[in-house]
Amino acid sequence: MKAGEVMNLSLEKRGFDFSIRIAELVRYLREDGKGFPLCDRLLYCGVTAGQDIRNGRNREAAELVGEADYIIEMAVAAGYLTPRQDVHIRADCENLLEMLVD
Question: Are the CB atoms for 19 and 50 separated by under 8 Å?
């Protein structure tokens, strides 16, 4: 297996894991009872970003990861999440963006 192939597998795995984390975050936001109004959009961004990565559409995936990050930032600012709750998922966004734009 070549280095580029290993990188793609790693990126695909990270994209898949990101999609799962976003889905778990959306489930939390829905079950919490606070009714965050952007849950559907956040879920779309997370799942579609993972699909785009799998299909080699890194630019499109990067845009969706950036949008997801922005929505999560909004959730904190609006009081749906605490700053402590968003630290890891936003770090995932940042790391994934770095991989996608290189």
Answer: yes
Q: How many residues does the chain have?
A: 102
Contact 22, 46 (CB under 8 A): yes
Sign of the torsion formed by the C-alpha atoms of 18, 49, 59 and 87: negative
- pTM of the predicted structure, to 2 decimals: 0.88
- Give long-range contacts, CB 8 A cutoff, 24+ apart: 51-58: 51/19, 52/15, 53/11, 53/12, 53/14, 53/15, 53/16, 53/100, 54/12, 54/15, 54/16, 58/11, 58/100, 58/101
CATH number where 80 lies: 1.20.1440.60
pLDDT in tens, 72-82: 999 999 999 99
Q: Which two tokens stand for residue 27?
A: 């489930």
The total number of structural domains that make up the chain: 1
